[in-house]
Structure formats: structure tokens, C-alpha cells
């Protein structure tokens, strides 16, 4: 174990450090002293500065573990904060979204005034169907302007929503609507995916068969694909919305209590049943607006692009509510990064002079695999900050991102957070933090993160790895699991009496910087040695021919668990027997012979969730030759069948 820890240190403790550029530091939103602020004073100040309240709050927080309430007595409306007040403040002509359709040359510039007009019409349309304060609504859409418009219109009316990612199955959508008892569904006929129409309404139809509480379904016509409209239940968006008034006074923003449920985001847990993560109105909005402003160093003229999907928490927090609350100009792109070609992202960055790009390590590794020449064809000199989220980022990808996308000068902010936390929790601040490739560095001000040992004792900096925890409530923390407070307690609060258990393993190095090492359930035990999947993946990806790697364990009678690695090679490299031996040896030298994978499978693709996380659970099923578990979150289910065949050969 001791030797193994040393090896982890050797791999993870990157020696390269990148202090902030003095010029950037001088103009940064976060200045010296930022970390010295008292958490309560900080969250009170930010709440007043970033949010407009209809009624001021009279108490900052109430902590009745594990239940937190923030900004008590305050009344506000999220749509008002994201849209109306900006128009009232003279920002009506400012661009809210540059929307880039997947078909080349289909694009829209949506100002804050346009956004208000669209939102008011949609809210009036929804209201005409009976949606009002407290009505529960499901949203199942792609990356079209009507997606944020729908969320904002529902926020305006005070209707809690759950946005189900457009790639989920009928089963996944149906069960979520049943769980939340949704009365309405908003969807689109189909979405554009690599030049083809990928159906949504037909899937929604199947889902509604399972969810009898749904009274009406509103469908946006996007692709013109054939759909069946059920008389009395199904309506077209253009029929419901287009004829409505866009006068904001015709549909005022509903004053909501700070603690009113804002939305539910379903997230998969260790068991099959998804968890309905409940977010509140005020705390959530304060948390996402504040972190967005400081972590990405947002200025009035910043052009910002979070290339996630609105259907997962990163999209909610950092495409819709955080950026709009800060009156930011954002880019929304409908399609995939390789359509019509692999330079599409870089073309978009050049066109809109994007200053901030926020994406996931898996996307960065995909672009690495495709090669830097795609980016080199475009002028990316507008970029000032690059962000990463979703998984631990291996140093190689971090460096590639900074060097090839950021011209070796942009700070990379590796942001650690979760659906549960609502906002970024651990991240560098680009003007203050000395960066280390692979480290999320420091907790955001007002976030009391720590690493605990098995006994719940805090592990001191430089003293090894343990459980990632948070010791005090933060504004945007989830309030409970919908309809299952018991599971909320058991999953997150029972392990330690005084902290939130995040479910990740982490360590803090001697400088006080955090290194996130993957989910605690990703830790393997091979012949009594604890090995993290992330650590071996990082060693594999360190090899010049490897693009992506996923490591899982399978049962082994001798060693307890044995390591199975799935590897995608970079273009031009060949998955030969020699290459296999070479990669095993590479892991051997990087970590130690114990970490050499027992099996190594070459594959063109790895099974990914739509939010860009490798589905290790599925790979484990493949490795152990088991019946496959729930695949509803998989981006491309055919990948697994392919892998099964290869593993058998
Ligand atoms: C925002 C989001 C949460 C889990 C989290 C952790 C992993 C996210 C990370 C990271 C290392 C980072 N994770 N960001 N691990 N470094 N910068 O991804 O939410 O989908 O709920 O996933 O993702 O394992 O626990 P969610």
C-alpha cells in the first residue's frame, strides 16, 4: 500500500506549475484577499450583488443537518433575474445567445430583448394550457433556442421542471415523468444529429404511454420529420406560442420563495433507480451566478461557450442560469463536433471570437485523437480561459488543451462539482491560482471541502488519499432526493456525522491543492493492492499512441480482482499484439507491475454517457460477461455489442 501510494504520487503530482499571467491577474474579477473572506459574509454579499430580489431575505441560512435553507424569507424569480431585469437595465440589444444550428449556415443571434419576447410568448402559451405555479413539467429537447426559452418560461410561471436529456430512451423519460408526476411535456419532432433527424416525439409518445399523468404535450417543429399528434393531448409549439403576446406585463414573473423547488435533475446512482436531485430557487441561482462570474472571469463583453448539453447539470448551471443571470453572451451549438467536419468547434470559436470554452476531458481527448491540425486551421486567439468538467483530466489532455487550443498561454480551470452540488465547488481562479495539470486546485470561497479518512478524520495536506467531503452547507446544494429523504440521508450524510459525502476519492497535496481521483466505487483491489481506475487510465493515456482508456476490474479467483483495460488508439496507431505488450509494460513502468492490465481490449469507441463519462459499469458487465445493466444513458449503444464481440475473440 505504501509503495502504491508513492506510485500514485509519482503519477499524479505533476511537477509543472503555471502561475497566473500578471496581465490577466491585474484585470481579474477575483483579486488578492478573495480567499480570505468569511463564508457567510461572502454568500450574503454575492446574493445581493448578483441577484435582484422582489423581497429581501431576512436570514442567510438555516442548517438542520442534512437539510439546509438559504436566503430565508427572500422572494425572487429566476426568469426575471436572467432576462427581464437586463432588458430593464438597458441591455436589450446585448446578445444573449449566438445559436449555431447543426446544418452549416443556419444560425440566429438572439438578443436579451429577443429572448424576453420569446420567453413571454412561450409563458403565455403554456399558461393558456393550464401551466401555472407548482405545475410539474418535463422537457425533452435538443440544443435549440426553444430549450432555454422553455426553461425560462417555466421559471417565469413558477412551474418546476425536469429536463430529460434528448438522448435518453422512452423508458428513462417515462419513469422520470412518473416519478415527478409531470402533467405536461415539452419536446420537439426530432433533433439534428450528424446530418440526420434523430427522433424525439416518437420516443416521447412511448414515454407518455407509461406516464398517464401527462395531459398535454407541446412539440416544436425542428426537422419537419413525420410525427403522430394525438388529438386532444398533443399540440404544436407554433400553434400554442406564436400568436401570444410578447408584452412582459401580460405575463408577470411569479414571485417565488427562496426555497421553492426550482427543478429536478435525475442522476444515476449505484443502484438502477435514478435519483431525483432537488434544487431550490435562490440558493441555486446565487451559487451558479457567483461561480460563473469568478471562475470564468466574466466581463461585460465576454463571449462564452459551454459546449455541454442543456440536458445535464452543466448545461442548466453554465449554459442557461449562471450565464444569463450574469447577462453574458453565450454560444449554443446544436450538433456534434465532427459535423460536417472535425474542425466545426474551432470554426465556431473563430466566428464568434469566443473567449471562454468549457468542455469535458472526453471531448478534449477526442480532439486530441483527431489531431491538432483541425484547430490550427482556425484563429483561436480570442480564447482567454479554458474550462474542464465531468471527469478527472489527465495531465496529457490538460497540456494538449492549453498548448493546442490555448496557444500555450490560456489558463485551464479544472472544475470539480456534481449534479448534487449545483455549482462548481473546487476550481482554480484564473487570475489567482497557480495551476497544476490534473489538479482542480482549491475549494471556491465559501466552500469548505476536505478529505476524510475512513474514521472521519481530516487527512492533512500531503498525507494521502481519502473521501472527498464538504463540511458546511453551500447555497446551491441539493435539498433532498425527490420523494426519498431516507435515501438522501443514507447516500450522502450517514457515513460521516459532520460532512457531506461526495462519493469521490481525493487527496490534498502539500500545497493544499485537491486532486480528484474518481468515484470511490472505482477503486479496485488487486491482490490486496488498492488501485484507482483513474490512475491506470492516466498511465495508459500517457502513452503517445493512446487516445482514450477505460479501466475496470473483473472477478479473478486468484487476485480477487483483475484489471481490464479498454483502449482507443490515436489515428495511425495499430492495435497489434506488440502494441498490447508495449502498453502493459508502459503501465508497469509508470505505476508498477501490479497495475499491468490482465486483459487489454482495443476498441474504436468507448461507451460514453451523453454527458461524456465513460460507463465503467457497462464495461465491467462486458468484462465479467454479465447480462448488461441499464443502458439508457449510453450515447451509442452499439459500442457495447462491438466490445463484447472483441472481448470474446
Ligand atoms: C458536473 C458533473 C459528478 C461526478 C463527480 C466526479 C466527476 C466532475 C470533475 C470530476 C474529477 C473534475 N467529476 N468533475 N472528477 N475532476 N473536474 O459532472 O456532474 O454528472 O453529477 O457528475 O463527476 O466523479 O462526483 P455529475
From TrEMBL:
SUPFAM superfamilies in the record: Acetyl-CoA synthetase-like
Domain Acetyl-coenzyme A synthetase N-terminal, first and last residues per copy: 37-82
Disordered: annotated span: 629-649
Residues in the signal sequence: none
Record keywords: Acetylation, ATP-binding, Ligase, Nucleotide-binding
AMP-dependent synthetase/ligase domain boundaries: 90-479
GO annotations of cellular component type: cytosol
UniProt keyword Nucleotide-binding, yes or no: yes
GO BP field: acetyl-CoA biosynthetic process from acetate
A GO molecular-function descriptor: acetate-CoA ligase activity
Domain AMP-binding enzyme C-terminal: 535-613
InterPro entries: Ac_CoA_lig, ACAS_N, AMP-bd_C, AMP-bd_C_sf, AMP-binding_CS, AMP-dep_synth/lig_dom, ANL_N_sf
EC number of this enzyme: 6.2.1.1
PANTHER family: ACETYL-COENZYME A SYNTHETASE, ACETYL-COENZYME A SYNTHETASE 1
Similarity comment: Belongs to the ATP-dependent AMP-binding enzyme family.
Protein name in the entry: Acetate--CoA ligase
Gene source species: Janibacter cremeus
Amino acid at each position: 500500500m505504501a509503495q502504491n501510494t508513492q506510485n500514485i504520487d509519482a503519477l499524479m503530482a505533476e511537477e509543472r506549475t503555471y502561475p497566473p499571467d500578471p496581465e490577466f491577474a491585474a484585470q481579474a474579477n477575483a483579486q488578492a484577499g478573495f480567499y480570505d473572506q468569511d463564508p457567510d459574509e461572502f454568500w450574503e454579499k454575492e446574493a445581493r450583488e448578483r441577484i435582484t430580489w422582489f423581497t429581501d431575505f431576512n436570514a442567510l441560512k438555516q442548517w438542520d443537518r442534512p437539510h439546509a435553507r438559504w436566503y430565508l424569507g427572500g422572494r425572487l424569480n429566476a426568469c426575471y433575474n436572467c432576462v427581464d431585469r437586463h432588458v430593464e437595465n438597458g441591455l436589450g440589444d446585448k446578445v444573449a445567445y449566438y445559436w449555431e444550428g447543426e446544418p452549416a449556415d443556419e444560425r440566429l443571434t438572439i438578443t436579451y430583448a429577443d429572448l424576453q419576447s420569446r420567453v413571454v410568448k412561450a409563458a403565455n402559451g403554456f399558461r393558456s394550457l393550464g401551466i401555472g405555479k407548482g405545475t410539474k413539467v418535463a422537457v425533452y429537447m435538443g440544443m435549440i433556442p426553444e430549450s432555454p426559452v422553455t426553461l425560462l418560461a417555466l421559471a417565469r410561471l413558477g412551474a418546476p421542471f425536469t429536463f430529460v436529456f434528448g438522448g435518453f430512451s422512452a423508458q428513462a423519460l417515462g419513469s422520470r415523468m412518473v416519478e415527478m408526476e409531470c402533467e405536461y411535456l415539452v419536446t420537439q419532432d426530432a433533433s439534428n444529429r450528424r446530418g440526420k433527424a434523430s427522433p424525439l416525439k416518437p420516443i416521447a409518445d412511448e414515454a407518455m404511454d407509461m406516464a398517464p399523468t401527462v395531459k398535454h404535450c407541446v412539440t416544436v417543429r425542428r426537422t419537419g420529420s413525420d410525427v403522430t399528434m394525438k388529438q386532444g393531448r398533443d399540440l404544436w409549439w407554433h400553434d400554442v406560442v406564436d400568436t401570444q403576446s410578447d408584452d412582459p406585463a401580460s405575463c408577470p414573473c411569479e414571485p417565488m420563495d427562496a426555497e421553492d423547488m426550482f427543478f429536478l435533475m435525475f442522476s444515476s446512482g449505484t443502484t438502477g433507480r435514478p435519483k431525483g436531485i432537488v434544487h431550490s430557487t435562490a440558493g441555486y441561482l446565487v451559487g451558479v451566478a457567483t461561480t460563473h462570474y469568478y471562475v470564468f472571469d466574466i466581463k461585460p463583453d465576454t463571449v462564452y461557450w459551454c459546449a455541454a448539453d442543456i440536458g445535464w447539470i452543466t448545461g442548466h448551471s453554465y449554459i442557461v442560469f449562471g450565464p444569463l443571470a450574469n447577462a453574458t453572451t453565450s454560444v449554443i451549438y446544436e450538433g456534434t463536433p465532427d459535423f460536417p467536419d472535425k474542425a466545426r468547434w474551432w470554426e465556431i470559436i473563430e466566428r464568434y471570437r469566443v473567449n471562454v470554452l468549457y468542455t469535458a476531458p472526453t471531448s478534449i481527448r477526442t480532439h486530441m485523437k483527431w489531431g491538432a491540425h483541425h484547430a490550427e486551421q482556425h484563429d483561436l486567439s480570442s480564447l482567454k480561459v479554458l474550462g474542464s468538467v465531468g471527469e478527472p483530466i489527465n495531465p496529457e489532455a490538460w497540456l494538449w488543451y492549453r498548448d493546442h487550443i490555448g496557444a500555450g498561454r490560456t489558463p485551464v480551470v479544472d472544475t470539480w462539482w456534481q449534479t448534487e452540488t449545483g455549482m462548481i465547488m473546487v476550481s482554480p481562479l484564473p487570475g489567482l491560482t497557480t495551476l497544476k495539470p490534473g489538479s482542480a486546485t482549491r475549494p471556491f470561497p465559501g466552500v469548505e471541502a476536505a478529505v476524510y479518512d475512513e474514521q472521519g478524520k481530516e487527512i492533512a495536506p500531503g498525507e494521502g488519499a481519502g473521501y472527498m467531503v464538504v463540511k458546511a452547507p453551500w447555497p446551491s446544494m441539493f435539498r433532498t432526493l425527490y420523494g426519498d429523504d431516507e435515501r438522501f440521508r443514507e447516500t450522502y450524510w450517514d457515513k460521516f456525522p459532520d460532512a457531506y459525502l461526495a462519493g469521490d476519492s481525493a487527496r490534498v497535496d502539500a500545497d493544499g491543492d485537491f486532486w480528484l481521483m474518481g468515484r470511490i466505487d472505482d477503486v479496485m483491489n488487486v491482490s490486496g493492492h488498492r488501485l484507482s481506475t483513474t490512475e491506470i487510465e492516466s498511465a495508459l493515456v500517457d502513452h503517445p499512441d493512446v487516445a482514450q482508456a477505460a479501466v475496470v476490474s473483473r472477478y479473478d479467483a486468484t487476485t480477487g480482482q483483475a484489471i481490464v483495460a479498454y483502449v482507443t488508439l490515436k489515428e495511425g496507431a495499430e492495435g497489434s499484439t506488440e502494441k498490447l505488450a508495449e502498453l502493459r509494460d508502459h503501465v508497469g513502468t509508470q505505476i508498477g507491475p501490479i497495475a499491468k492490465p490482465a486483459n487489454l481490449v482495443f476498441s474504436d469507441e468507448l461507451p460514453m454517457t451523453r454527458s461524456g463519462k465513460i460507463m465503467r459499469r457497462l464495461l465491467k458487465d462486458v468484462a465479467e460477461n454479465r447480462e448488461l445493466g441499464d443502458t439508457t444513458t449510453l450515447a451509442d449503444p452499439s459500442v457495447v455489442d462491438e466490445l463484447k464481440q472483441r472481448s470474446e475473440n
